[in-house]
Records
---
Amino acid sequence: MTRPPTAAQRRVIDAADPVTGRLRGTEFQLAALVARGLAFRHPRPPHDHFLTPTGHRIREEAPPADTPDAAEAPHASGATGVFAARVGGEAETPAAGPARAREVHSAWTGLLELRRMTNTDGAMDRPCGWERKHLVQAAALALEAAGHLPADGKGDGGGGGYRVRATPQPEAVAVREPDGDALRACAATLEKAGWQAGEYTEPRTGTRYLLASPRRT
């Protein structure tokens, strides 16, 4: 079994960009992570370092209780990192405007790069492992990056805008939009982003919604 990373290495791993896995650290720290198979150096300038799939798995695991500084290690994830896509209905939402648009564009560009680096065939039109582990955030990012507007924080009823929610089904999220045309537009966006999306009706309420899952081929 591979020995766990040191506390200092764990801090570098946990502070990686939540979408792309880009790392920041000293040359010694980054080289040590590369040597252990937890990171790789991108061959193109500026030769940044990124987490490997193994590095991503370690970041998502809780650090061992006896690891020094484990309590203080920052945890960056799709939901709690420096960037979080709007899933719709948040009580507190990021300020809109050019700054948010730039953040969303940067996150989406980074996600496409992550697809290229981690999909075995380098495909950028198909979701990657990170997206399959963060379904709600991944689907919401695809929608927000395409210009769809999320619902405000006034509950789950009424008001326009999309809402992305987890479902009991593995690898599937529900997307709701009170406007039928907007719901179909969300389906088209997700399909273009590499998802499968089907429209369904809730038996009790008659409400239409999407069931979306990442495409594998």
---
Amino acid sequence: MNESVAQASHATIPATARADQPPPAPPPPTLRPRLVVLRGMKIGAEYPIYEGRNTIGRFADKPVDIDLVCQESTEQIWCSRQHAFVTFDKKAVVIEDLNSLNGTWVNGVRIHAGQPKQLRHGDVVQIGTVQMKLFVE
């Protein structure tokens, strides 16, 4: 065995962390909230909720993030063009009605414009005739 190989085999490799300290905590899991349609024209359709503000409504003259135009029949449209905001900030999902004509409902209780409501996993949101369940996983 040559001398450089012998020296390399006895070399001390520095540790990346001290052995007498606990390892750093792993980063928290990334939440992926989504609304799943329970009642509407396309049951089971999923709408992901992205970080920041997500607008729920019907695409017409202004774009929306969660477009419910295909969820209500054309004879019975109850969803406003700009109906509600759902905001996600990595810790919480919050919904706020945008002064819609027919209101926004969470678990059967109407929420009023200007009064944000925190949502939890399993909550049912109703906008117009469409009911969606929140999944946070």
---
Amino acid sequence: MFATISRPRAAVPFCLLACLPGAAFAQWVSFTDETASRLTLATVPANDGEEKDIDLADLDNDGDLDIVVVRKRPFSSPGPRADVLLMNEGGVLVDRTVEFGFDAGPSDARDVLCVDVDGDGWLDVVICTTFEDPIRLYMNRGEDGGGNWLGLADESAARLGSISQTSRKYCAVGAGDVNGDGAVDLYFSNYDGGDDLLYINDGAGHFTDQTQARMGNYANSGFGTSNVIVDLDGDRDNDIIKLTTLFSAPPFGLGVYVLWNDGTGTFNTFPFQEINATSPYMFLLADFSGDGAPDMYVVNDSNDQVFTTTGVTANSNWALSVATPTPAPRTTGFGGNLRAADIDGDGDIDIGVGSIDTDIANCGSSRTFCLLRNDGGSLADPVPASSPQNYNIEPHDFAFLDLNNDGCLDIFMGLCNGYKVFIQNDCRAGCNAADIVAPFGVLDLLDVQAFIGGFPAQDPIADIAEPFGVWDLNDVQAFIAAFSAGCP
């Protein structure tokens, strides 16, 4: 619980804000490394150096989020490794891989997705594999009569039908109902110049390859690393957004592509749409502008791009404006996995950008993890390159979750070497506006100095009132009111 203080408004006159000395760089959001007390490993070493991909899910339906980590030899080399199941036990991530049946053997995994494929209310685990390793499907066994979770069971052989593709080097999996029968179908992106895979669900969690019938040559992929199934145009059927990069795969060149669903789950009836990303590698959809329409963030081999929706014509055109996150010293080179969440609790969607490339061995480079702050739909990195924070390190993948149940989002990272758990110190939401630097939970002179130093420098930490992106009297008045009210 945050400590509070109470003092009259007059205790913080405006002249104090004008006369006290400035402060050094102040953090937008800050985190404490609590890995030692928040993570217990058993099946992998603490300095685990394998490639890692992560998904979050409440697998045991107890109300908190658990973590699945899939692993392989790093970068573009085959090398199956054991996967890891971390169960959230009172805010501690405990390795329960063996106890709960997530140990059917190593997988050459590049992605993982937790989704209920059989409609029983329990999330199952789909493992997207590469280098010809068979796709894995772990079914959730639910609970026994006493309410005890029974764990997972590998039912891949019984549920996953044969695949027609000769090259099966999948790098990403997306889920959604494409044929309108209410069942979750699966789409796998191929990154070896072969066909993607569209797996159709029979409604009970059994899948058949219907790629050619529903996609034709629209399944072609040249280094596909990302996809999403979404009703982009609001016509009540789910479209597919995919990318191809590094080399062409006719009819596709390099770019992000929208494949429009004709209403029956067929995707080559309408012409596809190309989104002119410069050199796309990963992307995600989120409503960054706050208008209810999905926008898109694209990780490029050069500058990243933010595409904002300006309109959609059904089965024809997704109209977008494009911008580059600025300033953003950590988003101008090879990047990796993406996650979107309201990190600071201010009501808009921020974004985390991973630094480790899937294909290029860039561990140990100058590239580090980046948190981009959303202010009114504009994404920027508020942390100067000269003042990196403890989370500016090298994750293969990461996830946002409220691990300690305090209302703030924390970060779990799977690094080039090992794992980290960062607990957020303060959401700075609502009345927390004045409590802007450590020690959090205490309103003191350090908070005043940080605001005074940040305001003339247009530091985001001093931008605490609308309109965001503008440092004006509204920010000053908001700070004085919150501080005077003793409201950290």
